[in-house]
Design a protein that fits this description.
282 residues, 2 domains, ten-stranded antiparallel β-barrel
C-alpha cells in the first residue's frame, strides 16, 4: 500500500491536469493584466473627460469693406471697447493618447465705425463724414481629433479636424450725398466649413496644477468665401477640488475672410485678451 501511494504521488501529471493548470494560470494572468489596465492612468496633464465654461475678455480690432446693394462701404480699422465673449470647450480622452475636442465661441456686438475710402450710398460718393450703425456676429466652432504624445508630466499633441464659421453684418449707413443726408440699410452674411490643424503642449507641475500652450490654424480656399483664422493661447489650470478647477489664459485670434462674388466683402478681426473658465473633469 505504501509503495502504491508513493508511485501514485510520483506519477507524471495527466494531460487534462496540465490543461486545467494552464487554464488556471492563464486566467490568473488575465485577471492580473486586467487589474493592471484598470489601474493604468493617462498622463497627469490629461483628463478622461473635461468641460470648460467661461468667457474671453477681448480687445477687438475690426476692419470691414463690402459691396452692398446700395454701394460700397469702407471702414478703417476700429477699436471698439473691450467686450466679453462666452466660450465653451470640451475634451473626451479615448484610451490614453487619443481625444476628441470641441471649442465654440460667438462674437455678437454692435459695430459703429466712421466710413471712409470709396464709400458710396445709392451709387453716389459720400462727402464729409459717414457712419455705420451695425451688428457684427461671428460664430466659430471647432471639432478635432487629437493625438497626445508622452505619458509623463509633459505631453505634446497634434490635432486634425474641421471648423465651421458664420459671419454676419447687418446695419445702416448714413452720410451726406449731393448735399443731402442719405441712408441705406443692408445685411451681409456667409458661412463655411474649413480644415483645421492644431498643435499643443501641456505640463503638469502636480496633478492639480498644470499649464498649457495651444495654437490652431484654419484655412479656406476656393468657393464664395476664403481666408484664414489663426489663434493661440497660453494658460494655467488649478484644481482646488478633485473634479472642479479654474483656468486662466491669454490668447489671440486673427480672422481674415474674403467673399468673392458679385458683391465682394472683406472682414478682418483681431481679438486679444485674457480668458477665465470653470473646468469640470472626470
Amino acid at each position: 500500500m505504501f509503495a502504491m501511494s508513493v508511485s501514485t504521488r510520483l506519477s507524471p501529471p495527466r494531460p487534462h491536469h496540465l490543461a486545467l493548470r494552464g487554464a488556471m494560470m492563464l486566467g490568473m494572468l488575465g485577471i492580473a493584466t486586467a487589474a493592471a489596465t484598470a489601474r493604468a492612468e493617462p498622463s497627469p496633464t490629461l483628463d478622461r473627460v473635461s468641460i470648460s465654461v467661461g468667457a474671453f475678455s477681448a480687445d477687438p480690432r475690426i476692419n470691414v469693406g463690402a459691396d452692398t446693394q446700395f454701394g460700397r462701404i469702407d471702414a478703417p480699422e476700429s477699436n471698439p471697447s473691450r467686450t466679453t465673449i462666452p466660450r465653451i470647450k470640451a475634451e473626451l480622452l479615448i484610451g490614453d493618447h487619443h481625444a476628441l475636442a470641441f471649442d465654440y465661441y460667438r462674437y455678437d456686438k454692435s459695430y459703429t465705425p466712421t466710413l471712409t475710402g470709396q464709400t458710396t450710398i445709392n451709387g453716389q460718393p459720400v462727402s464729409g463724414t459717414a457712419t455705420a450703425d451695425a451688428d457684427l456676429k461671428l460664430d466659430l466652432a471647432k471639432m478635432s481629433y487629437r493625438w497626445w504624445l508622452g505619458s509623463g508630466n509633459d505631453t505634446f499633441g497634434i490635432g486634425l479636424g474641421a471648423a465651421y464659421y458664420n459671419a454676419n453684418l447687418n446695419g445702416t449707413a448714413t452720410g451726406v450725398v449731393n448735399g443731402e443726408t442719405a441712408t441705406a440699410r443692408d445685411s451681409i452674411g456667409e458661412h463655411a466649413f474649413a480644415p483645421l490643424l492644431e498643435v499643443g503642449w501641456r505640463h503638469a507641475f502636480t496633478p492639480d496644477l498644470r499649464m498649457y500652450a495651444e495654437a490652431s490654424g484654419i484655412k479656406k480656399n476656393g468657393g464664395r468665401i476664403n481666408g484664414h483664422i489663426y489663434g493661440g493661447n497660453i494658460g494655467v489650470e488649478w484644481f482646488p477640488f478633485k473634479n472642479i478647477g479654474f483656468v486662466a489664459d491669454y490668447g489671440i485670434s486673427k480672422i481674415k475672410l474674403h467673399r468673392d462674388s458679385e458683391r465682394d466683402a472683406d472682414l478682418n478681426v483681431r481679438l486679444t485678451g485674457p480668458s477665465a473658465y470653470v473646468k469640470v473633469r472626470f
